[in-house]
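Hi everyone,

Forwarding the result from last night's run.
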Amino acid sequence: MSIARFPFRFLWLTLLLFSQGLVAADLATLLERVGTAYGGRQQLATATAFEQYGTTVSAMHRQPGRIHRAFQYPDRLRIDVRYGEDDRELRVLSGASAWQQGTPVTGARYDAMLLQAARLGLPGTLLDHRDRVSDGGFITARDGSRLRALELPFHGGLRLIAGVDPDTGRIVESRGIMATAAEHDLEFATVYSDFRTVGGRLFAFEETHYAMAGVVGQTRLDHVEVVQQLPEELFDGTLPDRPGPDQHLARR
């Protein structure tokens, strides 16, 4: 190496390492802002489970449905929707096992439930895997605003992207992406609004759901209950009829 070229290469390497350090510091600051917006790290670590009750509208159903979600961080999920006496959707995730309508599922349907759990677990999903979170720069939200993108790859080809309002630290949009053998990956997105604090933790009471580019539904919560632990029976997909959507809350 010539003496004349050494200072230039040294300067280039120094600037590269310095810029990488700035990016890492900026990412860490943004993650802390997100954690604070949702109640702080200590509160998020304490409030590890919740139940949500509300109404959902789906493009696949003719009438609104009553929805019950039970979630135990990080990978216990029960979604029970009643559109009528004879029209019900039940999805249950318990770690490596998943069921739909009481029948075990694998593959893409299992991956879809993992994405749902990861998105319900926000922002803990990002904070607890911060070493794998990357800064996706700025993205354009559905309403045209600019959001900071935080991206987390997991479980093979799955990717979770959180769109963060840089001013408030709130996650106002999430995108779950499933890699496929086809030309385009599958993308499921949710836009969040009407933020309220329950049990010291921030929740979005209004959600608009997208599949690829189109709106496929909307969920409106009317009640959220935060707890430390939920019964394991809630996440046993072999027991699809116990408990029902409103029975568990009534028992407590």
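Helices lie at 6-37, 41-46, 107-120, 124-127, 247-251.

Cheers,
N.
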